[in-house]
Amino acid sequence: xxxxxxxxxxxxxxxxxxxxxxxxxxxxxxxxxxxxxxxxxxxxxxxxxxxxxxxxxxxxxxxxxxxxxxxxxxxxxxxxxxxxxxxxxxxxxxxxxxxxxxxxxxxxxxxxxxxxxxxxxxxxxxxxxxxxxxxxxxxxxxxxxxxxxxxxxxxxxxxxxxxxxxxxxxxxxxxxxxxxxxxxxxxxxxxxxxxxxxxxxxxxxxxxxxxxxxxxxxxxxxxxxxxxxxxxxxxxxxxxxxxxxxxxxxxxxxxxxxxxxxxxxxxxxxxxxxxxxxxxxxxxxxxxxxxxxxxxxxxxxxxxxxxxxxxxxxxxxxxxxxxxxxxxxxxxxxxxxxxxxxxxxxxxxxxxxxxxxxxx
Length: 360
Hints:
- This protein is mainly β.
- It has two domains: 1-43, no CATH class; 44-359, Single-stranded right-handed beta-helix, Pectin lyase-like (Pectate Lyase C-like).
- Helix content is 5%, strand content 46%.
- The chain has a 25-stranded parallel sheet that branches.
- Belongs to the glycosyl hydrolase 28 family.
- Keywords: Cell wall, Cell wall biogenesis/degradation, Glycosidase, Hydrolase, Secreted.
- InterPro entries: Glyco_hydro_28, PbH1, Pectin_lyas_fold, Pectin_lyase_fold/virulence.
- It is found in: Secreted, Cell wall.
- The active site is at residue 203.
C-alpha cells in the first residue's frame, strides 16, 4: 500500500462509533507502518485522533493490566488531531489502594511512550486515566504541546505526565488538572524544559520521588519556567525517600517565573518523603541535591509554611538559591513562615519570614 492516509472508519478497516475498534486500529497502524519502506515505522508517522477513544471501564479487556495505549520503539511520531483518550477511570479509582501501600495491583496508564524519539504530542486530551495519564520512559527529544490532562482532584495516582530516563523532553502550552502530580520527574531525566504549563487541581510539579529503588540514575538539567499553579497541594517540589538503597544525585534544577494561586507548600524540598509511613526515616536519604534555584516565585500560599527545604542529614543540599520570592499567606492559622534544615541557601530579595533561616 502506498504511503498516505489510513482511516480506521473506512470500509477497509470497519471501525464504527460506540464499538470496539481495537482490531481496526491495529490493522490501520500495521498498514501505515508497512508503507514506510524500506524500514517499517522508521519514517515519520502521524496518528490523528478525532473524537473520543474510550478505554474498557473495568480494564478486563486490556492485554496488559497496566497499559491501555502503548507507543514503543518509534522515531518521528506525531500524535495529534484534537481528540480525547478517555480512560474511564472512576471505577478504578475506587479500587485503587496504591496511596495506602507500596505493593498494589497494576492499573492501566492511558498513554505509554517507550523509547520514542524526535516526536511530538499536540492538541490531544487525556481524560480520567485509571492510573498515570502519560508515562514517558527512555525517550529523547520528545515534545508535548497544547496538551490537556483532565481528572478530578480526588482521583488517586493519576499523575499527568511522568518522565523517567529520558533526555530532551519539552512540555509547553499545556493544561493539567488531576489527582496527583501534574508533572512528575523520575530518575534518569535530563535536560527537561517545562514552560507555560497551568497546573491545578493536583499535587504540583515534582522532581521525584527519588531514592526508593536500587540503581537509580541521576536527574539533571531541569528547567521549569513561566508556569501557574492553582489550588494545588504542592507547588514546585523535590522529594526523595529516606533510607535510599543506593546513592545518586539531583542537580542543575531551576524554577523561575512561577505564579502560585492559593497553593499549599509553594516551595518544598522534602528528603524525608514517606507517603505510606513504612520507611526508616532515621536512615537519611542518599540523594545529593545541589545547584537548585527558585527565582521570581509570587502569589499566595494556603498554608503558613510557604517555604520548606528539608535536606538530608549528613548530606546537606548545596548551592541552593532563592531570589525574588513574594508569597502571601491566604489563611488564618498564623503568619507566613519558612522551615529549613541541612541547607544554607543564598538569599536575594526575599522577605525575612521566607528567608529560610537554617534550623538544627
